[in-house]
Design the sequence.
C-alpha cells in the first residue's frame, strides 16, 4: 500500500503506511502493563515519530468524518450477502497477506504472523479450542481492503452509530464534521435506540470486526462471536462509554472480549513456531468448526 495522499479522493486516501499502524497506535494508548512494569519504558510507547502520528491522526479524521449511520447501513447491504468470493480459509490467509507492505522494513509481521501469534498465545494458556480459532481468524475481515474499501472502513476503533458519539472515543473531536453529529435523530445519548437495548440492536461503525462476525456467526459459540464483533470497541471494553446501550447479557459477554484483548495486543513472540510446524493442528481445528470454503 502506498502513503500517497490526494491521488484518490479524500475519502480514499491511505494515511496509514499499512494497517498495522493503527494497531501500533492502540498499543501506544494501551501499553502492555507487564512490559511497563518490567522495563519502565512507558515513555517509549508514547514517543513515536511525528510522521506516524500524523498518518494515524489523518486516518481517524477520515474515519470519524465518514462513518455515519447511512454509511453503515449501505455497507451492511453491500457486504453481508457474501456474494463477492468463495474460497478455503487457507486461500483467504494468502489473500490477506497481500496486505503486507513490502517497501517498509519496519513492518516486521505479515497479517498471518499476527493471527498465529494471537492464536498460539491463547492455545499456550489452555483456553478452549474455539477461542484459539477466534485468535486465528479475528482479523480476517481485513480482506475488505482488497475489495477496495478505504482504510478507515476496514480498521480503527469501532463505535455505535445512530446515537451520540462518546468523547471517550479516540480523537473524538473529529466527529464534529460527521453529518450525524448535527442530525437530531442521531445526536442524543440514545439516538434511535432505547436504554440498555443490548448491542445486538445497535449498529456499529463498519469495519473488519462486524464483517468477520457475520461471516462466522453460524459456526462459533457466542463468547467467540462477541470477541470477533467487538474486539476493536475500545470505547466500551476499555473505557465503558456505552453502558447505557449494554444489556446485562452484553456485560457478561464482554468479560470474554476483555479476556481476548490482551492476546490481540500483547502476544508478540519472537520464537514463534513456523507455519509448517503448526499447520496440522490448525487444519484439524478449522475442519472441526468451519465448512471447507468460506463466503466473502
Ligand atoms: Fe482486529
Ligand atoms: Fe488483531
Sequence:
Amino acid at each position: 500500500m502506498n502513503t500517497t495522499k490526494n491521488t484518490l479522493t479524500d475519502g480514499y486516501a491511505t494515511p496509514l503506511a499499512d494497517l498495522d499502524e493503527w494497531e501500533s497506535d492502540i498499543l501506544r494508548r494501551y501499553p502492555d502493563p507487564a512490559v511497563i512494569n518490567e522495563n519502565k519504558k512507558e515513555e517509549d510507547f508514547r514517543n513515536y515519530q511525528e510522521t506516524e502520528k500524523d498518518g494515524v491522526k489523518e486516518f481517524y479524521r477520515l474515519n470519524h468524518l465518514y462513518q455515519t449511520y447511512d454509511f453503515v447501513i449501505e455497507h451492511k447491504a453491500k457486504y453481508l450477502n457474501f456474494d463477492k468470493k468463495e474460497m478455503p480459509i487457507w486461500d483467504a490467509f494468502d489473500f490477506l497477506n497481500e496486505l503486507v507492505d513490502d517497501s517498509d522494513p519496519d513492518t516486521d509481521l505479515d497479517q498471518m504472523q499476527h493471527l498465529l501469534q494471537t492464536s498460539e498465545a491463547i492455545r499456550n494458556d489452555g483456553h478452549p479450542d474455539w477461542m484459539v480459532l477466534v485468535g486465528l481468524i479475528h482479523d480476517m475481515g481485513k480482506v475488505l481492503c482488497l475489495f477496495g474499501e478505504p482504510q478507515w472502513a476496514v480498521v480503527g476503533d469501532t463505535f455505535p452509530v445512530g446515537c451520540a458519539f462518546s468523547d471517550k472515543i479516540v480523537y473524538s473531536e473529529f466527529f464534529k464534521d460527521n453529518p450525524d453529529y448535527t442530525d437530531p435523530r442521531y445526536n442524543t445519548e440514545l439516538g434511535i435506540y432505547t436504554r440498555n437495548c443490548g448491542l445486538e440492536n445497535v449498529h456499529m461503525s463498519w469495519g473488519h470486526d462486524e464483517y468477520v462476525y457475520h461471516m462466522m456467526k453460524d459456526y462459533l459459540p457466542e463468547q467467540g462471536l462477541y470477541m470477533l464483533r467487538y474486539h476493536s470497541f475500545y470505547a466500551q471494553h476499555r473505557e465503558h462509554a456505552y453502558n447505557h446501550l449494554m444489556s446485562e447479557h452484553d456485560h457478561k459477554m464482554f468479560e470474554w472480549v476483555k479476556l481476548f484483548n490482551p492476546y490481540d495486543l500483547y502476544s508478540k513472540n519472537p520464537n514463534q513456531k513456523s507455519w509448517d510446524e503448526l499447520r496440522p493442528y490448525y487444519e484439524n481445528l478449522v475442519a472441526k468448526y468451519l465448512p471447507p470454503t468460506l463466503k466473502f
